[in-house]
Amino acid sequence: MMIQPPTLAGKQAVLEGLPDHPAINALESQSTGAWNPQAFTDARFDFGELTLTIAPTGIRAACSTVQKAGYNFFEDMTAVDWFPASPRFQLSYHILSHAFMERIRLRVMLDESDPVVDSIVPVWAGANYFEREVFDLFGIRFAGHPDLRRIMMPDDWQGHPLRKDYPVEGYR
Amino acid sequence: MSETPGSPVLELPATESTGERRMILNMGPQHPATHGVLRLIVELDGEVIVSVQPEVGYLHTGIEKTCEAKFYQQVVPLTDRINYLDPLSNNLCYCLAVEKLLALEIPERAQWIRVLLTELSRLNSHLIWLGTHAMDIGALTVFLYTFREREEILRLFEAVSGQRMMTSYFRIGGLAMELPLDWLDRVQAFINTFSEKIDEYSNLLTGNPIFMNRLKGVGYLSPEDAIALGVTGPPLRASGVDIDLRRDMPYSSYEKFQFKVPTSTVGDTWARYEVRLIEMRESTKIIQQALDGMPGGPVKADAPKIVLPDREKMKTEMEALIHHFKIVTEGFNVPAGEVYQGMECGHGQMGYYVVSDGTSKPYRVHMRYPSFATLQAVETMCKGRLIADLVAVIGSIDIVLGEIDR
């Protein structure tokens, strides 16, 4: 069996286990404009990957904060539907640092009733298609997105196929 | 147009945005230069492009949704169908992600064979790119040359996996089976002549004035724009950003191989052509190193509850038969958690995000494919340039619609 890096669960454990991590340091400090460190709610280090949970209102500011801290490349963004749990939706942003060659995951949990989150297209223009895909397949809306339309499914499609309450074989 | 190598970007007169002479041109989805079913809505002012709006989704088959209804091992054949020009990279990235969740140690020989086959797969992808890109520009001959070598690569794939394109040769925990006898000699024979073949393509194209005029100074992408738009792989390196996950975040024992990562600071379609051509030469070197240092040993991990037993064992040993039956009928449980595995495929950075809830079926599989992000950069590269340049730009970013739509 491969030797796994130890799991650090909870924000306190991660803060103690990874004391000099540039992304955590940036998110913990007060110095950057719109960012409020209160929005950094939880953290987990698992399978050698760092997950930082951000409050839904703070994701855009969190992205620009880690961007300034050297995590310059937006790699991927998608959603997970935890139906019927609450909060139902999880958004996962994978951000790569070309300077440290390390990846972090920013995680946002959203309620089912009104799944809206700030778009990060102002920070990384490359998030455009990824957010359109999540909007199309999960029905999560992105406030401030320049062109929020369906991307994969036809424009007149009913429903959001990647939601867990949408059957694999579709409605027919 | 300028003909000097490494010339600065062509400057066209700025377009007047009066809107009176605008024309909307629909290109695709069945246009031969769009490499699949890509539809581009191009707004033109005379011959000058004002905006390009890609419309994708014609090949959307819902693979991510299908994955949620399959056992972990049943997802492997689905991954081939996404980027069908680079099938083994897809297999590898998915297997690495699940192996990370399982904390499986892969035998060294399996890792080396994975590297060897992934590089052959990269050559396959680059050969198709070169042939079709040159054909789009009007150099038809190169297509016949590159497909001659691609045919040999497909025969090598067929020999190991029984399939020319949908290989599914990498499995969770190693490989499907040991290599056929004399297969490594066949790869050696292929590699021995392949460098000359690259020279042949280069002789046909690199000095060709039509090809040079169509590519040089066309489709400039600055490093800042490339990073902002999520461009990866050869287009990113051609814009001067020296990132290659094989070297910078090695996986599957890539850290044991010596190779150079070609970059260019010019950032036009010609630079992308040059970068890919050198990449093919470097891939050849990696394959040679893999052949020279190929370790012995098993090709499957020692994990009987995850890896299918040998056929012979299954028929003679009760224990192996039980494991076989269990894996095929019930799958195997994967510890709960989420992992993201990135790797460098022929087109750029691929990534598999696998979320497990502890059962035998993945809770969510998401694939990050390079073409999906790179397509966003087409407008930046084409704005204010001639409509004819659009074909060169689409060819140079090397898109596969299967991986955009999934």
Helix/strand class of chain A? alpha/beta
Largest interface between protein chains, with number of residues from each side? A-B, 40 and 42 residues
Strand tally of chain B is: 8
Strand order of the largest sheet of chain A: 1-2-3-6-5-4
Strand order of the largest sheet of chain B: 1-2-3
| Main sheet specs of chain B | 3 strands, antiparallel
* Beta-strand share of residues of chain A: 25-35%
List the helices and strands and how they pair.
The complex is a heterodimer of chains A (172) and B (406).
Chain A: E1 8-9, H1 11-17, H2 22-28, E2 40-46, E3 49-54, H3 59-68, E4 73-81, E5 89-97, E6 102-110, E7 116-118, H4 127-138, E8 141-143
Helix pairs in contact in A: 2-3
Chain B: E1 22-27, E2 39-45, E3 48-55, H1 63-67, H2 76-80, H3 87-102, H4 108-137, H5 140-161, E4 170-171, E5 174-175, H6 183-205, H7 209-215, H8 223-228, H9 234-238, H10 245-248, H11 269-292, H12 311-316, H13 318-330, E6 337-345, E7 348-356, E8 364-368, H14 370-374, H15 378-382, H16 387-397, H17 401-405
Antiparallel strand pairs in B: 1-2, 2-3, 4-5, 6-7, 7-8
Helix pairs in contact in B: 3-4, 4-5, 4-11, 4-16, 5-6, 6-11, 11-16
Account of the 3D structure:
The complex is a heterodimer of chains A (172) and B (406). With 172 residues, chain A is α/β, with parallel strands linked by helices. Chain A contains four helices and eight strands; from the N terminus they run βααββαββββαβ. In chain A, the strands form two sheets. A six-stranded mixed sheet of chain A has the order 1-2-3-6-5-4. In chain A, strands 7-8 form a two-stranded parallel sheet. In chain A, strand 5 (89-97) and strand 6 (102-110) form a beta hairpin. Chain A is globular, with a radius of gyration of 17 Å. The model of chain A has no long low-confidence stretch (mean pLDDT 86). The relative contact order of chain B is 0.19. Chain B is globular, with a radius of gyration of 22 Å. Helices cover 47% and strands 12% of the residues of chain B. In chain B, the strands form three sheets. A three-stranded antiparallel sheet of chain B has the order 1-2-3. Chain B has a three-stranded antiparallel sheet with strand order 6-7-8. In chain B, a hairpin with a 2-residue loop joins strand 6 and strand 7 (348-356). Residues 1-10 of chain B have low confidence and may be disordered. Chain B is α+β, with helices and mostly antiparallel strands. The interface between A and B is large, with 40 and 42 residues.
